[in-house]
Specification:
With about 140 residues, the chain is an alpha+beta fold. It contains five helices and four strands.
Length: about 140
C-alpha cells in the first residue's frame, strides 16, 4: 500500500457515514469511495435504495479525475463545452453531478467520495459531512 492510498477501513467508514447521514434525513442513498486512480475501493447501497449503485462510483471517479466536487462540475458541464464533451464521451466512467468530493492529503488527491440516488444538493451535503467527520 502506498502512503497516498486510502485504507479499506477508512473507505468503509467514509461510505458508511455518508449513507448514514443521508438516511437520518430520510434519504436512502448509495455511496462509493475510489482511490487516486478512480478505481472503486468500496461501494455501498443503503437500505431502501432500489437502483443498482452505478452513479456513486462514477461521480467519485469524476471528482478525482478533474479535482473538483460535483457541485462545481455540474454547472460546468453546460458552460464549458470541452469539459461537457469529455463527460459525455465517457458516460460509463464519469458523472459530473453534485454529490462527489475529491479527498486530499498533504495537498494531493488520494481518492474521491460520492453519494448518489438522491437530490444532488442533498448528496453533496451528505458527502461533505462524511468527509469532515471521518479521519483519513
Amino acid at each position: 500500500m502506498f502512503l497516498a492510498d486510502i485504507p479499506l477501513d477508512t473507505a468503509i467508514a467514509l461510505a458508511r457515514t455518508a449513507v448514514t447521514v443521508c438516511a437520518e434525513r430520510g434519504n436512502p442513498v448509495s455511496a462509493a469511495v475510489v482511490d487516486a486512480d478512480g478505481v472503486p475501493i468500496v461501494i455501498i447501497r443503503g437500505d431502501g435504495v432500489t437502483k443498482p449503485p452505478v452513479a456513486a462510483p462514477r461521480k467519485a471517479a469524476t471528482a478525482v479525475k478533474f479535482g473538483q466536487p460535483g457541485s462545481e462540475m455540474e454547472p460546468r458541464e453546460t458552460t464549458d463545452p470541452v469539459f461537457g464533451a469529455e463527460i459525455k464521451a465517457h458516460p460509463d466512467l464519469y458523472n459530473a453531478h453534485g454529490g462527489s468530493v475529491p479527498i486530499y492529503r498533504d495537498g494531493r488527491i488520494i481518492g474521491g467520495l460520492a453519494v448518489a440516488d438522491t437530490d444532488h444538493k442533498v448528496a453533496d451535503t451528505c458527502a461533505r459531512e462524511a468527509l469532515n467527520s471521518v479521519s483519513y
